[in-house]
Design goal:
By secondary structure, this protein is an all-alpha fold. It is 40% helix and 0% strand. Helix 2 runs antiparallel to helix 3. The N and C termini lie far apart (37 Å).
Amino acid sequence: MYWTLDLASHLEDAPFPASRDELIDYAIRSGAPLEVIENLQDMEDEGELYEGIEDIWPDYPRKDDFLFNEDEY
């Protein structure tokens, strides 16, 4: 299982909190690439709810990770 920014971006608008099965269903309905669905299927299903993309991919970059000043634009 691997995540990239492009793959993870397909789950940004997912209806969190969600279970693994709900995320798989969302990915299929939204037309996400097969790699996204395979990554979700590879996750262990412990019945837990995921609160956001960070629960799936802890290294997902947040807005604070980028070094630019929004006040300049």
